[in-house]
Design a protein that fits this description.
The chain has 436 residues and is of the alpha/beta class. The protein has three domains: 203 residues, FAD/NAD(P)-binding domain, CATH 3.50.50; 104 residues, D-Amino Acid Oxidase, Chain A, domain 2 (2-Layer Sandwich), CATH 3.30.9; 70 residues, no CATH class. Strands 3, 4, 5, 6, 11, 12, 13, 14 and 15 form a nine-stranded mixed β-sheet that branches. Strands 1, 2, 7, 8, 9, 10, 16 and 17 form an eight-stranded mixed β-sheet that branches. A hairpin with a 7-residue loop joins strand 12 and strand 13. The protein binds flavin-adenine dinucleotide.
Length: 436
């Protein structure tokens, strides 16, 4: 195994998550020396996640991961549950044998596996080391300073996650505002394999993802989730930090409410709590992307706010942005040019990829969602359940009368101005997603 001993290398990558590992392995595969610095005792030890990883972007970095990596389950069932206090409407989609599936994984194991592969391909992995600051000379990033030492490199790639203090140090971004992050809390609950399969209607290593709307999230901008692992389920929720602060709510209280909802409680009944964790999720999207490159430096993944929150996608954006940063570094090394102009290629290539295209498509999502969150995440969720309650209740009232009453109450409760504002927001959003 190679050691990082002479304090000088070609590229330093900060952060051993999906973005950093993808960047580092891309550079090592091109035959360059690259050092990956991770603050945790091993890659993945600090990472919190739902979650699902997606086969197609994973295969771009690890073509054989489906045979080799510690995967929990192949997700075949996707359930979207609209909750109100004690009701739920669940839409369920099931598939098998799709070309590009998703898998549930446990990041502690999975990131560690990815880091091991990176090491096998020549990446010098330095764990249990925190990068405190970036070293700058003549307006170029020339290395990093850890607790103990200074290390120098031609290029530094920042993949240090949502808090990226390093991006802040060099003025790439400001402190994140509470409205641009969600606070997510999660529990891993142990259940045996047969119980999981029975409760979630699965066979063998099939998996199920629940996305949960409304209910305990109290009309705030947020979503809940359940992912099935081999012998545990991950359950959690993420809610905008601004709304939590405004309502003075504790996220674990919301999670407790979610766990005791009548639709959710039977799924986790009798399980043993294995782990509790909390983490921030970037929500600023396209409009809050930081500066992505400068002389001797690029920034990828969560550190660059690259999360598609509507689709719960983050690892794929992290991996592909890391890979593109790695490819840009390889080109720069071939030319011996580490200038801002040379590294601007990173942004150009990102713009041609799904990463930037998707972030751009959803650029107005968070603005509109913030403005109308109580409507979309509260009122309409309750009304969906109200509709099914009306539809499924048999009474000696003529159906036409029931339908008319439902519509009349719906308009009356909401009031026409609010309905107009909701419709306006929805149309603006659809326009920006589908047309321009
Ligand atoms: C609850 C939750 C559920 C999620 N579910 C999903 C999901 O189902 N699917 C999905 O695709 N995404 C999901 N995401 C998002 C996904 O986890 C992130 O987008 C992804 O992990 C980003 O990868 P990254 O490499 O950019 O950052 P991270 O995974 O955060 O990795 C950053 C790494 O940098 C290290 N680090 C930080 N600072 C330093 C420093 N100064 N020095 C050294 N090392 C440092 C950290 O220890 C960490 O290992 C979820 C996120 C949360 C919080």
């Amino acid at each position: 195994m190679r050691e990082f001993s002479d304090n000088k290398t070609e590229v330093i990558v900060v952060g051993g998550g999906p973005a950093g590992i993808s960047a580092a392995i891309t550079i090592a595969r091109a035959g360059h020396e690259v050092v990956l610095i991770e603050r945790g005792s091993f890659a993945g030890s600090k990472n919190v996640f739902g979650g699902a990883i997606y086969a197609q972007p994973m295969r771009e970095i690890f073509p054989d991961f489906e045979r080799e990596a510690p995967i929990e389950r192949l997700n075949v069932a996707h359930k979207y549950a609209i909750l109100s206090d004690d009701e739920s409407t669940v839409i369920s989609y099931r598939h098998k044998d799709v070309e590009n599936p998703s898998y549930s994984v446990i990041r502690g194991k999975f990131d560690r596996w990815m880091a091991e592969q990176a090491k096998k391909e020549g990446v010098i992995l330095v764990e249990e080391t925190v990068v405190r600051e970036l070293l700058i000379e003549n307006e170029k990033v020339v290395g990093v300073k850890t607790e103990l030492e200074e290390y120098f490199a031609n290029i530094v790639i920042l993949a240090d996650g949502v808090n990226s203090l390093l991006a802040k140090q060099i003025g790439f971004r400001d402190t994140i505002e509470p409205k641009d992050v969600a606070l997510s809390v999660k529990e891993v609950i142990k259940l045996n394999r047969e119980t999981i399969n029975e409760r979630f209607n699965l066979a063998d290593d099939e998996g199920c993802i629940y996305e949960l709307f409304g209910g305990p999230m109290l009309g705030m901008l947020g979503l809940g989730f359940i992912y099935t692992n081999k012998e545990s389920v991950s359950i959690g929720l993420g809610v905008g930090l601004d709304a939590l602060a405004e309502k003075n709510l504790k996220p674990y209280e919301l999670l407790d409410a979610l766990k005791s909802h009548p639709t959710i409680a039977p799924l986790i009944k009798g399980g043993e709590l294995l782990e509790y964790s909390a983490h921030l999720i970037p929500e600023g999207g396209y409009k809050k992307l930081p500066t992505l490159f400068g002389a001797g430096v690029m920034i990828a993944g969560d550190a660059a706010m690259m999360v598609n929150n509507l689709h719960w996608e983050g690892t794929n954006l992290a991996m592909i942005s890391g890979k593109i940063a790695g490819e840009t570094a390889v080109r720069a090394l071939a030319r011996g040019d580490f200038s801002e102009k040379m590294l601007s290629r990173y942004q150009k290539d990102l713009e041609n990829s799904f990463v930037m295209k998707d972030l751009k498509t959803y650029r107005n999502l968070m603005d509109e969602a913030h403005k109308r969150s109580e409507s979309f995440m509260g009122y309409y969720m309750r009304e969906v359940n109200g509709f099914f309650k009306m539809f499924t209740t048999v009474e000696s009232i003529p159906k036409r009368e029931k339908f008319r009453k439902f519509i009349f109450d719906f308009v009356k409760k909401r009031n026409i101005i609010e309905l107009f504002k909701d419709a306006n927001s929805a149309i603006k959003l659809l326009w920006s997603i589908l047309i321009k």
